[in-house]
Amino acid sequence: MSTDTASHGPRIYRGLNHKEGIGWIAGMTPVQAFLLIAVCAPALIAMSRNQWSATLGWGLFAAFVAVLILVPVHGRPAFRWLADLTMFQTGVLMRWSPWQSRAAAGLAGDRSEPDLPGVLARLEFPDGPEFLGSRICLIHDTAEGRWGATAKLTHSGVGMLSDDECERLASRLGSMLVGLGHREIVDRVSLCVRTVPDDGTEYSVWRDRHQRGDAPALARQVTAEIDRDVASVSVRTELFVTVSGTEEALRRPAKAAGGGITGRAYALYRLLEGVADGLRGLGVTSVTWLTSTGVAEAIKTGFNPAAAASLSFRHLTSPDPDGTVGLPISQAGPALAPTPAARAYHHDGFSSVSYAVQPPESGTIFGSLGPLLAVRTAGERRTLAVHYEILSAAEGSRVVKSDRFRNNVLVDAKAARGFNTTEIDSRRQRGAREQEAAVAAGHAVVRFTVASSITVPADWNVEDHAARLENDASGRFRLLRLELAQDSAFVAAALPVGIGLPRQKRAFTA
């Protein structure tokens, strides 16, 4: 998806949204058009030779193949489904898909070397130089050549805010993204919200420290019963933000700062305070940039929500004077991720189902994703991640001009051949012109994706809880279950490492 973000007004969520990758040739991509011509060619050749029986046979074959190529089924054409299923089954049969940590296998490893499954295996987590009293963990995506950092945020939420207050927050978010785009160093921002089943560990430790020895026995009993009942249904939320920039954008400022990992860290550090200020304008009360142990715990609790209690207890009861309490990055991943299923992801005694969230074409408002985080059953965990990519001014201008040209060509071609122009065509044409005008006025183009997941203990029926998540989205958003890619979808929806926004499909799309 892509949208215009204005410095004023909540355009970040509505008005100019359009889907990414709409084909140039009657809505087809060049590959689809080439394949369609190839399968239709034998029928046309037979027709030119007056071989009508062969024409009929080849025509039926071409029609069947055209349906497989062009008709989407749950977001993917049949040929794409077949290719994805072939790759999925190949990984299972060749034993490439099952994964086991080094610790579970009894193998020793370096504490600073990550041991993560799937797409996470491409990440490195070097420590940067000291910043605001701690050494921030850098997230290096070796596949895409990106460098980023993650912060844990404290926010009071938007559930009780009025529509006007949500409008102001949307405007401030748009202003923050536009400001980052002008700097052209950080171009991706990922917000990840996770619910946390609150078992009362922190409160229990606090009570043990402040318990009065002379308290009446009846008061102790009543308090214990209340704590037990409340703890079983309590839910907290945790919020993370990950910012990252490309190797190309960081290379020059990093070289000026000394080069290497340290230079790239300093190039990022120069923007982190600005990002923190922008987040405070959105109602964030505290921004804590994570060290390697903080990132390890964020990943670990993503895979295993039950680990949060033990980690919290460790921090509360045995703080280390040097502040290094926490997991090493080598223990951040799950102990075991068995053979992946097509419709769910199983990890560390839990099962997760992840979705791509498709906002309505008419747009939405700030805070409308809240129902996807509404826990229905004590013990389940829901997550929501929004990934933004701010295109540079030159790239954004090129994108909107190309989009306007494509829509004009489609409308003019239909009119020239006597076909009726649909309202969708007209709306896309108007939207392309308005978007080009907005970018010319100094606004930015932002690509974004939204992913959501639900996690429950492995012995629960995960399909029942997935159906409840779909019910909460019904009438608001469309959920597209990312089948055959549940492990990667889980990373995009639940782990604050900045992975989740696909590369642009073509240079001329937004």
UniProtKB/TrEMBL annotation:
<feature type="transmembrane region" description="Helical">
    <location>
        <begin position="52"/>
        <end position="71"/>
    </location>
</feature>
<protein>
    <submittedName>
        <fullName>SCO6880 family protein</fullName>
    </submittedName>
</protein>
<keyword id="KW-1133">Transmembrane helix</keyword>
<keyword id="KW-0812">Transmembrane</keyword>
<dbReference type="InterPro" id="IPR049978">
    <property type="entry name" value="SCO6880-like"/>
</dbReference>
<keyword id="KW-0472">Membrane</keyword>
<feature type="transmembrane region" description="Helical">
    <location>
        <begin position="21"/>
        <end position="46"/>
    </location>
</feature>
